[in-house]
Every structure is written in structure tokens, then in C-alpha cells.
Design goal:
Among the domains are: about 50 residues, Orthogonal Bundle (Ribosomal Protein S4 Delta 41, Chain A, domain 1); about 90 residues, Structural Genomics Hypothetical 15.5 Kd Protein In mrcA-pckA Intergenic Region, Chain A, CATH 3.10.290.10. About 45% of the residues lie in helices and about 10% in strands. The protein has eleven helices and five strands. It has a five-stranded antiparallel beta sheet with strand order 2-1-3-5-4. α7 packs across α8. The longest helix is centred in the N-terminal third of the chain and has 16 residues. It is globular. The protein starts with 8 loop residues before the first helix and ends with a helix. The mean pLDDT is about 85.
Amino acid sequence: MARYVDSVCKLCRREGEKLFLKGDRCFSPKCSFERRSYPPGLHGRQAQFRRKESDYRMQLRAKQKARRVYGIFERQFRRYFHQAQHQKGLTGQNLLIILETRLDNVIYRLGLAASRAQSRQLISHGHFDINGRKTNIPSFLVSPGDTIVVRDISKKKSFFKDLAKNIDEGRVPEWLELDAKNLTGQVLSMPTHDQIDATLDEQLIVEFYSR
């Protein structure tokens, strides 16, 4: 599985806004975006004053932002777009629903991980059962009725013991349900567009791939 190994703070600076890729650190004074909000690179400071807002640039930035928020590389993102095209309904909304129902995002939305990157690592290390079966594929797409459980052997680890004490049930979206005591989550329904907590412009993404 490919993964991004450079500084993720550069991604936030490149998009000109916080993407909250480092979990709790993004809410602390240590967040590098708070200190250097200009784009990375040798001419980053000058670049923020001479950007040209062409249609292509806006479409590209919308697509790149979505990829970076969900931690997906280009080939897989394009495959999701083609999958969304062949589903009923609006392509842009279908795409966001596919991204939201990835297992790594669901674990993050349930509060069982501080970031999507941490969620992917926990899944890859085999800490979760889906419907009673061990699953270590972050891109697994969940469906309504699926049950996500931290494995019994994993609950003994200090990370999950601390998580059970401090987890915030209030941040869980309406389409998911969390049992914080037992570290168990359930998918109640597919997310609607209004329930997707991401500042993404899906129409610009559709326009980018439709050129």
C-alpha cells in the first residue's frame, strides 16, 4: 500500500487552509499552518500574491484538496470517480459518499482514531473486526448495518484503554452510531450530502475530470 511520507503540513499550506491531517496537533499552537500559512517552496511567499484564479486552477485545487483530505492517491481517486459516474444520482455527491464510506474514514468519524492517517495504520495492523471478521484493508467500503468492533486482544493495549476513557461521542455523525464503552460502531445508513463534514466543492471535481 502506497502512502505519503513527506510532511503533511505542506499539504495544508499548499491548499491555503487547515485540512486537519495531524489530529490534535492541528488544534494546538504547534500547527505549522498557524506560523507559515503561505505555500511551501522557495517562492512560496511571493506565490500567494500572484495566483491566477483560472477555471482549471480552481478545478485542480478542488480535486487535490479532496485527495489530500481523504489521503488517496490519484489512480485510486480517479477509479472512485468512474465508479461514481456509473451510479444513479449526481456524480459529485456519489463520489463524496464513496469517500466517506471508506473504512479508514469511518473509523476516524467514530472517533476511534485522531486522524485518517492514524486510522489507516490501526486498520493495517489488524485492530478491527467488521461483522465479526478481521479486516486490514483501509479502503474497504462499509454498508448500512455493518458493525465495526475493536478486537478483544487490541482492547488490552494502552492506546485503546485511554481511548475508551476520552472518546467524544458527540462528534459522531448521524449516519453512524458509537458505543464508546465497548469501542463498537455501527453504520446506520449511507451518509447524505448534508451529513458529510468536509468543505469540498464536488462540482469542480466533476468538471476537472470532464474536461
